[in-house]
């Protein structure tokens, strides 16, 4: 029993030292972009957030939901890689790519292993610079989004949240939901 207690104390001491280690911060500029590099050698992962100062307010009112859908479809394929190839490469690199749109900004977040940093950044740059938004994937996304909106009535809470936003901000650009309306989604057509 005494042996187990000593091992537990050692593990706890190691855990505490890991938790309380201070990461190293470096601030620099990359062109017009401010970069804050946080290095923490305890866990060999990187997290990166790309911030865009544009969001749903940039959508044409008749096509609200375009930015949200575009971000959702980022990894749906490029001119050189299909969606399945991109998904396989993301898995092989243990890379997480997620995105979120707001009214005034959009964010793309990337998280992966440091040992795969260069390959990960190459893949993300390829996805961002060569996204092709295949027609079938856009059609599928439009169908899913329209179905979700038509099924909204099954959730009174979701209906209330949506209605509060629409009526509170009536007459302003904020009245258009980020994920669009049935009418606006119907006006979004994939480019062939």
- What is the name of the CATH topology? Cytochrome Bc1 Complex, Chain A, domain 1
Spatial separation of the terminal alpha carbons: 71 Å
Low-confidence segments: 1-20
**Spatial ordering of strands, largest sheet:** 3-5-4
CATH-level-2 architecture:
2-Layer Sandwich
- SSE string: HEEEHHEEHHHH
Mean residue pLDDT: 85
Shape field: globular
Strand content: 15-25%
What is the radius of gyration computed over CA atoms, rounded to a whole number of angstroms? 22 Å
Biggest β-sheet, characterized?
A: 3 strands, antiparallel
Number of strands: 5
Describe the protein's architecture and organization.
By secondary structure, the protein is α+β, with helices and mostly antiparallel strands. It has a single domain, classed as 2-Layer Sandwich (Cytochrome Bc1 Complex, Chain A, domain 1), CATH 3.30.830.10. Helices cover 44% and strands 19% of the residues. The chain is built from 7 helices and 5 strands. It has helices spanning 2-19, 66-72, 83-92, 117-130, 135-150, 156-168, 182-187, and strands spanning 24-30, 33-39, 45-52, 96-101, 106-113. The strands form 2 sheets. The chain has a 3-stranded antiparallel β-sheet with strand order 3-5-4. A two-stranded antiparallel sheet has the order 1-2. The longest helix has 18 residues, at 2-19. Mean pLDDT is 85; it is low at 1-20.
